[in-house]
Design brief:
Order of helices and strands: HHEEH
Shape: globular
Number of helices: 3
Structural class: alpha+beta
Helix content: 25-40%
């Protein structure tokens, strides 16, 4: 869903994926208090801790 939604915002957002089971992903997850995946961060803050609906995602991205 992110792959189809983010292009509508031009260059405003950059998608970076982190594997939670990789060493760096584990460290980042622990530091942020993420206990389940998927989680979506915006500006290094947790925006969603589950898969949002497309409308929820659009509403959140429109805030930025």
């Amino acid at each position: 869903m992110l792959d189809e939604t983010l292009p509508k915002f031009g260059n405003k957002f950059v998608l970076k994926k982190t594997m939670a089971n990789a060493p760096l992903g584990m460290i980042k997850s622990m530091r942020l208090g993420i206990h389940s995946v998927p989680a979506l961060l915006i500006d290094n803050e947790i925006a969603f801790i589950q898969v949002p609906t497309k409308q929820e995602l659009m509403n959140k991205l429109n805030i930025y």
